[in-house]
Structure formats: C-alpha cells, structure tokens
Amino acid sequence: MKKIRILHTGGTITMQMHDNKDIAKSNRSSFNLDFFNEQIPGLRDIADVESQSLFLEDSSDMVPARWQQLAEAIAEQYESYDGFVILHGTDTMAYTTSALSFCFSNLDKPVVFTGSQVPLSNRRTDARRNLINSVELATLNLPEVSICFNDRVYRGNRATKISIGDFDAFASPNYPVLAEFGLELTIRSRYRPRSGPFGVLSRFDPNIQLVKLFPGMDCSLQVPSGPDTCRALVIEAYGSGNIPAGSSHSLLPALNTYLNAGGIVVITSQALYDEVDLDKYEGGRQAKELGAISGGDMTTEACVTKLMYLLAYYDDTPTIKERFRENIAGERTV
User: What are phi and psi of 99, to 5 degrees?
Assistant: First the structure.
C-alpha cells in the first residue's frame, strides 16, 4: 500500500462548524487523522495516510514565505512518502500551485492540492469527494504539482479559480485537464518526464506589482518610476495584449521611463483564454518595441509567481527575460 502524506495549510476544508452554524477558524487540535477517520471512514483503505498540520492560514493570508515553508517541508519528507496531498484554501490555491511548480525540478511523485467550497464537517460538503480523489491520485504515477477538484485534475500552473460558490471552482483555460474522475479515473495528459535528480529551489522575491487596466485610469500613477521600488511589473491588458496608446491617454510614456530605468514588464491579458500577441495591435507593438515581453498563454497566477521565482535567483534583466520566455514547468506553450 502506498504511503501518502497529507499536509494541512488551512482553508475552508479544515474549518469546523459552531452550534450556531457559523464557520469557525481552522482548529489545529481537532483536524487530524481521527477526524479524517470519523468523516471519511474508507480513506485509509486507499493508502497508508499520515497527516501533519504544517500551518493553518486563510488562503488570503498566504505569502511567499509560506510557499517556501511548504516546498521545503515536501523536500524534507520527499523520500519517505510516495505522494503528497496538500489541503489549501481555494482563493489563492492557483498561486501556490504555480509557485511550487517552479520550486521543484525533476519531480517524480504526485503533489496534489485540494480543498473545498464547504467545510468537511458540513453535511453537504464537497470535501469528502475531493479528498478521496486526491489521496487516490497521490498513489498514482502522475508526477505533477496539480489541483484535484470536483472530479477534475489540473496542472497547477495552468489553473485559475473561476467560481466563488460553485463546486466546479477551477478551470485550466489554455491546457487540457490532466485527468478526470468518473466511473473510472481517466488520465488524459502525459506527465512531464524527469531529466535528473529531484531538486528544490524555494526562494521568491515579491518585489513586483500587478496592474489591471481599465478605461480612464491615470496611467502615470500605475507604473513605478524604476526598479528600485518595484523590480517587475505585470500588466493585465486588454484582449491579446493591447494597451492604451492614444495621444491623450497613453501608458507608453510611463512604461518607457520604467523600462529604461531597468524594470521588467510582462503583459498578460484580462481574458482567460488564448495567447497574448503583442504584434496584433498598435499599443502592444509599441510596448514590445520599448522592451515589454508577452506572458503568452500563461495565467496571471503563473506570471506573478514565475517572476517572483526568477527575481530571487537572477539579478540581470536580460537573463530574467530570457528565462521568463522559457517553458520551465509546463506553465506555457512555446
């Protein structure tokens, strides 16, 4: 029987219900294997499951230091288990899975993230199904950092949250699902082959800024003056990467100042599907000529965490830009 480690980091799935039916905060002492066995009696028939509360945070409180702590905890226990299941809040799960996908090289074991829209202790919860599916998935040969939710399995750095209240909370807009649970588990995507020994690089530099364009915004106030205050800027532009470039309302002068000072600009899209093409419209073309780079078909979560990862390990701008354009962990189509 496979040996699986469940790591608790918090989120709705770990919350308990008070008598007045309000959702309480995660309870470190009560959420353990005894609680699992009470709520999901057959879980230990799937695998030899061990459980650890690493930390318990609302996912809105997740920070890069927690990503590092989680990545290092998995690395320290890597040889002792056949797979890992991470319980995490849904709101920032796609950021954490994207971040960890960049941390690990030559992963040959499943690292499966899951959570729920309703606490495990609730009668009509989606947590039981998500947890059973995730533990089963962690016993298989699918060496990915993935999200298992509502009978679907997504590559972690291709996923994004799309619903607040629906059980079908995630989507993978520009990459097919890795697997689906039905009467049987169907694996639909080949896993990424390893090319060397497992390794982990878990540092992140959060000194970046994310800007979402909207009509009428004061462009000069949204772009930092230089990399001394913000090393990199991610812009959620319109459509295929179009930005305001008119004579009376242009983002280009501020971008030019920032880029000339040594900043890094990545342009992604507010649209979920398809790929950014900076050559399609005038605004994107001019931004590209100034030195901005395309986020391709990456999610915003992947763009943000990938930049944080690269900034932590590289100092020179050309190398960071070159590495950003590469497909490091299956996060983009090149």
Answer: -60, -45
